[in-house]
Write a structure and sequence with these properties.
By secondary structure, the protein is of the alpha/beta class. The chain has 3 domains: about 130 residues, Immunoglobulin-like; about 350 residues, Glycosidases (TIM Barrel, Alpha-Beta Barrel); about 130 residues, Jelly Rolls (Sandwich), CATH 2.60.120. Helix content is about 20%, strand content about 30%. The strands form 7 sheets. Strands 2-14-17-18-19-20-21-22 form an 8-stranded parallel β-barrel, surrounded by 6 helices. Strands 3, 6, 7, 9, 10 and 12 form a 6-stranded antiparallel β-sheet that branches. Strands 26-28-29-34-31-32 form a 6-stranded antiparallel β-sheet, with helices on one face. A hairpin with a 5-residue loop joins strand 9 and strand 10. It binds alpha-L-arabinofuranose. Alpha-L-arabinofuranose binds next to loops.
């Protein structure tokens, strides 16, 4: 008892002494260290959590082509006489369409109502929506068609009427102006005149999309991605690259060309988790490889596509499939053709398709990942087969291999040497671990081999317990870990948080970087950590030490420093995971006589909050970075890092 009492007194005194003590850090700015890749911090997009259809992709109609597997009317409620047909539609790869038969005697009329995604369509008052449909009159008589929005209280919320004429399939379009703002509208498409009309690919898009493109993206979500200034964009997955089985793997060739004829595919995440059952989760591929490349270009990010290596998702526990080696060639062709699609001339077979889609210039793709989280005795053999054909033809493409789904363990230890032996350019490491793991791993890369194969931290996020939340606790741990990534920028060339997007009413996996509903968006605290690293990445690593040692967890402090030779800045990042504020002095050692010295003022940013705090749709600004300026006296800067805070100091050098 006595001992505990003494310990408590000592703990309190030592604690307050620690709070008062000034911690001395030194940044050696006498020569710049390893180069930081300009594309180091990026984004990883996967269609999980309704991230594409129902999310970034602005289409409001679910199952617009009536081709959800075995359930062609999913998402629709039909009334009157509606038939599903698959003979003679306009799109061979999406063969189903609907036949509407109406008679005066039919009091209900005939039509069908689309429910939208995650409980409805987000509609805004006074905004315009482009309604399009492919239609033909079966009886040759002109027919009137009304497309009408219905709000969540069943009130009309705007409509347009179209005249369907002639027996040939034609595209019709009209504009509906929203009469109300409502996140849960539906779309009623009704045949107003007696007779028979066929309809296919019924679509509704906001006219206001990202960059005003017709087959466009939700502007608020796309803007949030652009605001990260991502250096690299990995897509389209994740597990959806592999599929539930080989037949449902992501086949990029199905995702290009006319949107109407991109065959719908089952989404890998539709019934992965029993408690998160989404039988209505399909991929329209409206956001396909062309759109991914275009978005990467918009964002100034290097595209990094991932393609199937002939393995379906290995988490399928006994149901996984591996294509026989002697049938692998079509998969390798997919890789070779993708490089041509992205980089080939507009007269090449696949380059022409890109050009016809509106981008004659190449996308200058530099990276290609083959497989996602693969493991087992065969992966390296399959990867080698790809590399044997890609390397001679495209020696400048950097190839990314995998190290399995875990950050360590038997498979990880087996895969790394295999990847090195194959001389892949980067190995994709994934870690979804506890905040404590992230703190404990701040030195993870300090002892990695500095030559040859580099690391791509392709998927990571701190997972809190018991609930996995986008809390400040997780963000702070990620910020601390990233000081170690930054210090080892010669080892880690790329890093992307995962997953990126999640619909609050239709998610399968959390935490996620950005959350949204049908009208709103919220940036998680973790988003701001990513943004602060992206905006303050610098160009070269600078050694930062305390008593000659790296600062990676001792006394709950994590720190790193970079120089930005273009902006003439030194940028210091400090993460204080202790509950108390810390007084810190940062001495900048510059070369004697060179006349380089810190300017009298610096800009700083601090992200701090309670560990449990999260940004939510209701409280989107619970934790936000705060910017301020600080005075600098000579070579040594004195700062106070608040308890539980991530701080970035940008020091202009004169
Ligand atoms: O990011 C979610 C999933 O986690 C990815 O699809 C997969 O690669 C990993 O297992």
């Amino acid at each position: 008892m006595k001992n505990i009492f003494l310990l408590l007194i000592c703990g309190t005194i030592c604690h307050s002494l620690a709070a008062q003590q000034t911690i001395e850090l030194t940044v050696d700015a006498r020569k710049t260290g390893a180069t930081i890749q300009p594309d180091m911090y990026g984004i990883f997009f996967e269609d999980i959590n309704f991230g594409a259809d129902g999310g970034l992709y602005a289409e409001l109609v679910k199952n617009r082509s009536f081709d959800f597997t075995n359930t062609p009317l999913m998402g629709w409620s039909a009334y009157g006489r509606v038939e599903i047909r698959n003979d003679g539609g306009p799109f061979d790869r999406n063969p189903h369409y609907v036949r509407l038969i109406s008679e005066w005697a039919l009091l209900t009329g005939t039509g069908l109502i689309n429910e939208g995604f995650a409980g409805g369509m987000g509609i805004r008052k006074e905004e315009n929506y482009r309604f399009t449909v492919y239609a033909r009159s079966v009886d040759g008589v002109s027919h009137r068609l009304r497309a009408e929005l219905i709000d969540s209280r069943n009130n009309p919320a705007g409509y347009v009427e179209l005249e369907v004429t002639g027996k040939e399939w034609k595209k019709y379009h009209g504009v509906i102006t929203g009469k109300t703002t409502d996140a849960h509208c539906r779309l009623n498409v009704k045949l107003l005149t007696p007779g028979i009309t066929d309809l296919e690919h019924i679509s509704l898009f906001p006219i206001k999309t990202w960059k005003d493109r017709e087959n466009g993206m939700r502007p608020d979500i796309a803007q949030a991605l652009a605001d990260l200034k991502p250096g690299v964009m990995r897509f389209p997955g994740g597990c959806i690259v592999e599929g539930n089985n080989l037949a449902t793997r992501y086949q990029w060739k199905n995702s290009v060309g006319a949107v109407e004829n991109r065959p719908v595919n089952e989404n890998r995440w539709n019934y992965e988790f029993k408690h998160k059952f989404f039988p209505d989760y399909f991929q329209s591929y409206g956001l396909g490889f062309f759109e991914f490349f275009q978005l990467a270009e918009d964002f100034g990010a290097e595209p990094l596509p991932v393609i199937s290596c002939g393995f379906s998702c290995q988490f399928q526990k006994g149901r996984e499939q591996i294509v026989p080696m002697d049938s692998l060639q079509p998969y390798i062709d997919d890789a070779l053709d993708l490089i041509e699609f992205a980089n080939g001339s507009a007269t090449s077979k696949w380059g022409r398709i890109r050009a016809e889609m509106g981008h004659p210039e190449p996308f200058n793709m530099k990276y290609l990942a083959i497989g996602n989280e693969q493991w087992g005795p065969l992966y390296h053999i399959y990867l080698e087969a790809f590399m044997k054909q890609i390397r001679p033809k495209y020696p400048n493409i950097k190839i990314v291999g995998t190290s399995g789904p875990s950050a360590s363990g038997e498979e990880f230890d087996r895969l790394w040497p295999q990847m090195k032996a194959l001389k892949v350019d980067m190995v994709d490491e994934h870690y979804y671990m506890s905040p404590q793991w992230f703190l404990d791993n701040a030195k993870r890369y300090d002892n990695y081999d500095r030559k040859g194969t580099k690391v791509f931290a392709g998927e990571y996020a701190a997972h809190t317990k018991p609930e996995k939340k986008n809390s400040f606790e997780s963000a702070l741990a990620e910020a601390a870990f990233l000081t170690g990534v930054e210090r080892n920028a010669d080892v880690v060339h790329l890093a992307t948080y995962a997953p990126l997007l999640a619909h609050v009413d239709a998610w399968q996996w959390n935490p996620d970087l950005i959350w949204f509903d049908n009208l709103r968006i919220v940036l998680s605290v973790n988003y701001f950590v990513q943004q602060l690293y992206s905006y303050n990445k610098g160009t070269h690593v600078l050694p930062l030490t305390r008593n000659g040692q790296v600062v990676a967890g001792e006394e709950q402090l994590y720190a790193s420093a970079v120089a930005d030779v273009l902006k003439k800045q030194i940028i210091v990042k400090i993460v204080n995971t202790a509950a108390t504020d810390r007084n810190i002095s940062i001495r900048i050692d510059t070369a004697a006589g060179k006349g380089v010295k810190p300017s009298a003022q610096m800009e700083a940013t601090t992200l701090t909050g309670d560990l449990q705090q999260e940004n939510t749709l209701e409280q989107p600004e619970a934790v936000r970075p705060q910017n301020y300026t600080l005075t600098v006296n000579g070579q040594t800067l004195t700062v106070q890092a608040k308890g539980q805070s991530f701080n970035v100091y940008r020091i202009p050098m004169l």
